[in-house]
Amino acid sequence: MSDYLKTALVTASVPMNDGCTMLADAIDLLTERYEFGFRGYGGAARLCFDGDKLVDELRLDVVQTIDNLGRATLEQLVDQHRWLSVTGSFRFEGALRLFDINLALYPTFDPERPVCLISHLDASLYKDLSNDDDSLNHEAADRMRSLGILLGAHELTDGFNAQNFESFHEVITFDGAALKEALLHPASVRAAYKGGVITPGTICGIKKAMLTLNQLRPIWGPAEYFETITGHSILSDMIDDEDDDDDDDDDDDATS
């Protein structure tokens, strides 16, 4: 696994108010479950664009601690600055280290659904998926799966996808219809290599009303398939090769 690529959980495009709600919910859940906080180096920032190009991030000094970033304050910041990022760190229970995360309301440039929520994760969370012998690290996979459901499978979005990139300049935004098309008709290896197309990452999800597990199975074969209480069909390739035959038969309920 790369030492530099960071997994980003990118949601399908939503209206601005829904995006603000999704960001607030993500902050609340990370704080409640994983001790999310700024810890002296995190904070809020405005994402600055020149047309559709991200050119800068300007720190907003009005937010000094995570306790200052309640929902009312967050709504005011979004009203004033529109495109917003919140950077901090969190801790898994029993872990001896902290993990960085950058949550962002990022523009899709769709007039009706102008924003998506991006959760850009610590690079080690992707790197740790593979053991030294290239086998799957099940603990790391459980962590990635939990974060995918927590931060991506929000009831207000049609779906989400894990993308690996170093900076927001590389993000591929999409709506529910585009995600459905990508899952029904996977991109060729050549197209995926060239980039600019949606290809399912370590984990992705789409509303059951758009695609069911029974529709996904014949297309994607050996993988993990399960459903969330938020109404998403989940597809994950975080399985061991020797488990391919077993995982095709398992459906698990998941919570976010």
- Taken in chain order, the helices and strands follow as EHEEHEEEHHEHHEHEEHE
Cα distance spanning the termini: 27 Å
Q: SS-based structural class?
A: alpha+beta
Main beta-sheet strand count, sense and barrel state: 11 strands, mixed
Beta-strand content: 25-35%
Strand order of the largest sheet: 3-2-4-5-6-1-7-8-10-9-11
Radius of gyration using CA atoms only: 18 Å
Give your account of this protein's structure.
With 256 residues, the chain is of the alpha+beta class. Helices cover 30% and strands 28% of the residues. It is built from eight helices and eleven strands. The chain has helices at 16-34, 71-81, 123-127, 138-152, 176-184, 189-194, 213-220, 244-247, and strands at residues 6-11, 43-50, 53-60, 84-90, 99-107, 115-121, 159-165, 203-207, 224-228, 232-236, 251-254. An eleven-stranded mixed beta sheet has the order 3-2-4-5-6-1-7-8-10-9-11, sandwiched between helices. The protein starts with 5 loop residues before the first strand and ends with a strand. The model is unreliable at 245-256 (pLDDT under 50).
